[in-house]
Design goal:
This protein is α+β, with helices and mostly antiparallel strands and 156 residues long. The protein is built from four helices and eight strands. Strands 1, 2, 3, 4, 5, 6, 7 and 8 form an eight-stranded antiparallel β-sheet that branches. The longest helix is centred in the C-terminal third of the chain and has 16 residues, at 110-125. It is globular, with a radius of gyration of 17 Å. The two termini are 18 Å apart.
């Protein structure tokens, strides 16, 4: 990281940011150009890194790309404020961001799929909802096992 003075290593600060974030962008590799898609997510920590969960239809571009290459990049950010200066190049922004990579795969086991859906719903809404067993077959659940990530913040 070029600006190591802005690197965030404190897990509590990273957790606070993750818990308040609602959208993650997943970057897929394709033959012609990268493909980036924003997704709602839920997560849990496994050791030092989070595992992110998403839901989707069973077919579509992101599902095809996941099947072709499970290695993806991801990004979560929040722009909090922009601070002006007397010159154009003296402006700065307050932000927090996480960038990383990992392995995206379909969740097969019914128990993990149900757990993931509960994590997504709880994270997005702040509460629990009953999920009927019949819903498991109508939705695809994906899991991003994070392999590496870095967090960065500027308080402006």
């Amino acid at each position: 990281m070029r600006r190591s003075d802005r690197e965030v290593r404190d897990r509590e600060a990273i957790e606070a940011f993750l818990s308040s974030s609602k959208t993650v962008r997943i970057a897929f590799s394709t033959d012609s150009a990268p493909y980036i898609v924003p997704l709602s997510f839920g997560y849990e920590w496994r050791g030092e890194l989070p595992v992110l969960y998403f839901h989707s239809a069973h077919e579509g571009r992101k599902v095809s790309l996941m099947r072709a290459n499970a290695s993806v990049g991801f990004e979560i950010d929040e722009l909090m404020d922009v601070h002006g200066g007397s010159e154009g190049c003296s402006w700065t922004a307050s932000y927090f961001s996480i960038i990383g990579s990992g392995r995206l795969e379909k969740v097969e086991a019914a128990e993990e799929k149900m757990k993931a859906l509960h994590l997504i719903l709880r994270h997005q809404s702040g509460r629990d909802f009953p999920i009927p067993e019949s819903a498991l077959s109508s939705v695809l659940v994906m899991k991003l096992s994070v392999l590496e990530m870095s967090a960065k913040s500027n308080k402006g």
